[in-house]
Amino acid sequence: ADRKAYVEILNRDGRVSDHELRLRRKDGSVMWVILNGTIVPFGAEELIVAWTYDVTERHRRAERMRLAAEQEQKTILDTSPVGIGFFTDQRMVHCNQMLVSLFGYPDLAALQARPLPTLLADPDDLPRLAKEAVQHFDAGGRYQGEWLTVRADGTPFWAQLTAMRLPDTGGDRTALWMVEDITERRQREQTLADREALLRVLLESSPAGLALATPGGELRYATPLWSEMFGYDVESFKGLTAAVLYSDPADRVGFTELLQRDGRVVDREKMAKRRDGSTFWARVSATPVRIGGEDLIAVWVQDSTQRRLYDEQLAAAQEALRVAVEEHRAIFETSAQGVGLLKDRVILRCNRRMEEIFGYEPGALVGRGTRILYDSDEAYELAGRGYNQAIRGETNVREQRMMRSDGSLFWCRITGRAMVPGDPGRGFVISYEDVNDQHAAIVAIRAMNEEQLAIFAAVTSGIALIKDRSIRSCNAKLEEIFGYAAGEFRGKPTRLWYATDEAHAAIGREIRDDFSRGATHRSEREVVRKDGTPFWCRFSGRLLDPADPDKGAVWMVEDVTEEREAAAALLHAKELAEEATR
Fold first, then answer.
1. Under a CB-based contact definition with an 8 Å cutoff, are residues 166 and 331 in contact?
2. Consecutive H or E run containing 83
3. CA 265 to CA 458: how far, in whole Å?
């Protein structure tokens, strides 16, 4: 057939230029040649003059390059930390093993057999997802979104989907989709947001104002209630020293000496002074705390004027606790991870995301040694040990501090594998993921826990988180009020507080009525301690989230037995005095 085609061209055009075909040698082997020919007169005959060039080696090099490219692509897919799939007309045509594992299927065939909508927690979401992606594709961009997906066993997980449309081939419209499990990240973000909301609501709903001051008395922070109590707005208190808040400056000296001696101050009453010069009795508690690396004093102040005068106006309005629930990238240019091809620890190729992570301009990393990505020789040598594992055909995964072009350091998750196990000369595929925010979130959660524990320890009222009329958590003060040891209340029902089932049921109805209206429940009622002795408590509670009562409620509890007894005694004395004057 090759001979026939060659002769037809020669007869038609009179010559053949750069015609590539295969010829067979005498020994039967096949070679690729470029054949040029022309018809020339030679005496009474016409002869064909042909020039032949052997290009077999060139074909071999091209084939080796093609196989190497296919191997490189396969290695990148196999070592990617995210699932990758190729879809044509909403049909999966190929994916890597990570995608199969991510969705919990035994193999690619099992995954492909599943209808595409069933990979989403809500199959009806597929049209909306497809529409959003196509809009991005048509605008020449890539798509990225977070969706709730479902594994083969039915368990849901949050996934970040990143997609881009590939160039048309043969009329097909193929898209590359990348899937990353972000469930743990969303949980960490939710935990941090919940704790921030809990602390904010606790501060805003407390009957006592909170201020943070340096040991020298310089005020750094105050809650709105504290500012209102002393007659300052949120801005005007800045720069004040604690000394101006005392009616008698000597009280400040005594307060400081007591704090230094005992390490804390609990329920000390002093005459305080407002901004306008008026005075009021204040009940003060304080404890040292460390916030943001700075030693401060947390000072809780409650206006006790009405309490000292046995007036009903002592009950301060308490806001409820509420908890806000809130709540983030694909291979090469669509990947949330940077990907580089390294040989002898020199970057041969990398995607744009890798350049962005390390702060380099496009193309600036190619040809550079990876030493520039580390802040010290020790860190560079430590990273080099992972290559031994990769050479054995294993995937090396680690987290290490890396350095950007501006010298700043950040935490990075590094995943590496040899292009060809056992042959380091073929290079390595390395992916880089910036996990600095995750480390920061862990540090932030730890700091938030420490701050919250310090505040709980300093507050003078009992505090409890109650769900389904069961005590989920509380501070030591609440257990102290009821005569229980530390930790005894956790998981116990609130029925322990009441002398009878009827009393427990009656107050439950009152609370449900208030909570159903989104209101704060406030009441004073007789309860019993662990040893059975009755006493009076003031209760104030509100749902964490009125839209979702199942999240529970936060309660503030205060022993008012002495206050009520004093008020009763004052009333009795008044009645006796009136009787005596009749």
1. no
2. strand 83-88
3. 9
CA angle (240 as vertex; 235, 245 as ends), nearest 5: 110
* Sequence-ordered alpha helix ranges (H) in 44-163: 56-79, 97-102, 108-113, 126-138
Proportion of the chain in helix, strand, coil states, percent, rounded to 5: 40, 35, 30
Residue 315: per-residue pLDDT: 34
Separation CA 195–CA 450 (nearest Å): 11
Compute the distance between CA of residue 24 and CA of residue 535 in angstroms, rounded to an integer: 109
For residues 494 and 469, the answer to whether their CB atoms sit within 8 Å is yes
Residue linked to tokens 């193309």: 363
Q: Which residues contact 541 (CB under 8 A, 6 or more apart)?
A: 320, 466, 511, 520, 521, 553, 554, 555, 556
Neighbours of 177 (CB within 10 A): 20
Q: Which two tokens stand for residue 157?
A: 């997980």
Contacts of 89 (CB under 8 A, 6+ apart): 172, 173
**Predicted confidence band at 535 (pLDDT cuts at 50, 70, 90)?**
very high
Beta bridge partners of 296: 289
Residue pair 281/271 in contact (Cβ under 8 Å)? The answer is yes
What contacts 24+ positions apart, CB below 8 Å, involve 450-453? 450/290, 451/199, 451/289, 451/291, 452/195, 452/198, 452/199
Token representation of residue 48: 């064909």
Copy the structure tokens of residue 546.
């009125």
pLDDT at 442: 74
Mean pLDDT of 440-454: 70
Kindly indicate the confidence band of residue 186, based on its pLDDT and cuts at 50, 70 and 90: confident
CA atoms within 13 A on the CB side of 460: 24
Q: What is the mean pLDDT of residues 184-190?
A: 86
Distance, CA of 437 to CA of 441 (rounded, Å): 6
388-410 pLDDT tens trace? 778 888 888 888 888 999 999 99
Distances (CA, A) of 220 to 205, 216, 491: 20, 11, 37
Buried-exposed string 461-483: b where 16+ CB fall within 10 A, e elsewhere: bbbbbbeeeebebbbbbbbebbe
User: pLDDT exceeding 70 applies to what percent of the chain?
Assistant: 86
The pLDDT tens digits of the residues spanning 158-173 come to: 999 999 888 765 555 7
Helices and strands: H and E segment counts in the chain? 16, 23
3-state DSSP call for residue 22? strand
* Contact assessment for residue 160 and residue 182, using Cβ atoms and an 8 Å cutoff: yes
Q: What b-and-e string marks burial along 88-125, b requiring 16 or more CB atoms within 10 Å of the CB? A: eeeebeebbebbbebbebeebeebbeeeeeebbbeeee
